[in-house]
Amino acid sequence: MQWEIAIESLSKITVLSNPNNEPVTIIGEVEDLKCIGVGTDAAVFQYLAAPQYAYKVYAKDKVDKVKVEAEVYQKIGDSPFFSTYYGSGETFIVVSYEEGKTLYDCVLQGIHIPEQVVNDVELARDFVRSKELNPRDIHLKNILLQNGRAKILDVSEYVQPGNDLRWEHLKKGYEEYYHLIDGKSVPFWIVETVRKWYHQQNKYFPFFDDFMKLVQKLNFMK
């Protein structure tokens, strides 16, 4: 399997998780590995000699998710809404590298997010449910804008029960508020402030509309 040529390089890096839902920390640097994404549980790398693959390396205390996510990808199978799964190692899974920008980056850079992306995510969620999985943890960093369509990047929580409402809130935000920022570059500090507030909203704002009223006070939705 061609993707295995990256294993030695991957063994030279360590990924550590951080508290308070903050992005992981990467220890080590390898010339032929390029970090292309950082999340709260894992970091994603591209191996320069095999750029068609993406290697999602989990933090040391999150490696139990490797087997879970691999099994979810195998259940999903072939779908235009998700990456292709190729294999896994002790600390990582291997999927197809996907071109495009995350919706998080689109908001930062003022790149238009078409309604088709929202429709695609709805279709993807229906497809996932047909596989007896639970589509959740769908947010700006987990959705890629690819040629005007959506590609969903992280499926690790699809075996967990319950609805975290992240997609429902994101969809409502798009439908009711996105026109206020469409085509505008939103400063990084504002995006990160909103992200951190959102993780506290269940504690302080039981209703999403109350949360959005606070967000609008940042004066960038005009």
Task: Tell me about this structure.
With 222 residues, the chain is α+β, with helices and mostly antiparallel strands. The chain is built from 7 helices and 10 strands. The strands form 3 sheets. Strands 3-4-5-7-6 form a 5-stranded antiparallel beta sheet. The longest helix is centred in the C-terminal third of the chain and has 17 residues, at 188-204. The radius of gyration is 18 Å and the shape is globular. The model has no long low-confidence stretch (mean pLDDT 91).
Gist of the model:
With 222 residues, this protein is an alpha+beta fold. It contains 7 helices and 10 strands. The strands form 3 sheets. A 5-stranded antiparallel β-sheet has the order 3-4-5-7-6. Strands 8-9-10 form a 3-stranded antiparallel β-sheet. The protein has a two-stranded antiparallel ribbon with strand order 1-2.
Distinctive features:
7 helices, 21% strand, 5-stranded antiparallel β-sheet, 222 residues, 3-stranded antiparallel β-sheet, globular, alpha+beta
Residues in β-strands, percent: 15-25%
Extended strand count: 10
Poorly predicted tracts of residues: none
SSE string, helices as H and strands as E: HEEEEEHEEEHHEEHHH
Q: Which of globular, elongated, flat, extended, rod-shaped describes the shape?
A: globular
